[in-house]
Amino acid sequence: MLAATSACGGAGSSKASADDGKAGGKAGASASPSPTKPAGPPMLLETITPQTGTTVGVAMPISVIFTNPVAAKARATVEKHMKVSASQSVAGAWHWMGDRRADWRPKTYWPSGTKVKIDADLKGVSNGNGRYGVHGYTHTFTIGDDVRADVSVTGHTMKVTRNGKLVRTLSINAGSAQYPTWDGTMAVIDKQEKVHMTSCSVGISCDKGSPNFYDLTLPWDVHLTQSGTYVHYSTGDPNPGSGSARGSHGCVHLSMSDAKWFYGQVKQGDPVTVTGSPRGKAPADNGYASFNLSWSQWLAGSAAGEQTTAQL
Fold first, then answer.
1. Around Cβ 187, how many Cβ atoms within 10 Å?
2. Rounded Cα gap, residues 68 and 122, in angstroms
3. Would you call 24 exposed, middle or buried from its count of C-beta atoms within 10 A (0-12, 13-18, 19+)?
4. pLDDT above 60 for 3
């Protein structure tokens, strides 16, 4: 999984770190090279997400992180050697988040039930910086039920749907004027039953005398951004909704019972869409927020352009 900044909001980095689902499949990043002497040092993948064998949500991208930078001149070739196949034909494209991370997303959400495979056949492929691939990686995963959560900051509600049908409407509080929640669509990164959250870790306050200081372990945490956005229960806001409207440091607060219920409903890759916040949309690389870019913006970051998945 992506490494979490364990707190809400704040000024934490939006950049994804590189300890996502390990690049397993045919071989891991520590696999031995082929007997043939490579043309240069090895080009390796640090991670591929989703992990092979998992079931994920309809907004989940394929995220590949390279151990070393990939030069712009090599990216089209690298993209073409990372073949995406699916049981249902889907249009999509790669997009580079800097020089070490490339994500593939469909033009629109994945259809539920789709089987997906990525074959990163990089043996002999150059990264443009003197390194060459020495083996391939394969991951397979499945798109599960279409579970979505739509959060209204001003309405203090979260509507949860499954396969197009409303399941439940929950009362929420989101960020305050000082610490607003990210807007836009964020695919769930991961979830944990308990997370230790501190205001110091995201640059809010390290002063124990500050009203904004906190150092808490809180339950039922659904992780949305690398900069520290979660949907969870907060002891400081036990009964969220328009009546309390306390505001958070950027997270979305649910009551204890609702937080536990929501935790049980969602999985990695399910889209949580926030509207009504003044902060603006989360950057696409702040976790898995790829659908915050329009399709034309997404293609602008691709070297090889739009492609249709091969038949799986």
1. 23
2. 14
3. middle
4. no
Average pLDDT over residues 85-105: 98
Residue 48, SS3 per DSSP: strand
- Cβ neighbours of 126 (radius 10 Å): 19
SS (H, E, C) 231-262: EEECCCCCCCCCCCCCCECCCEEECHHHHHHH
Cα separation, 293 vs 142, whole angstroms: 24
What are 15's strand-pairing partners?
A: none
Nearest to 188 by CA among 152, 144, 246, 247: 144
In this prediction, residue 4 has a pLDDT band, given cuts at 50, 70 and 90, of very low
Token pair, residue 20, equals: 């996502």
Strand 91-96 with 252-254, pairing: unpaired
Type and span of the H or E element at 257:
helix 256-265
Enter the tokens of residue 82: 């990372």
Segment 29-38 mean pLDDT? 48
| Whole-structure pTM value | 0.86
Q: Work out the burial of residue 161: count CB atoms within 10 Å of its CB; fewer than 13 is exposed, 13-18 middle, 19 or more buried.
A: middle
The values of phi and psi at residue 299, to 5°, are -65, -30
Per-residue pLDDT, 12: 41
Quote the tokens at residue 86: 């699916």
Tokens standing for residue 154: 């001003």
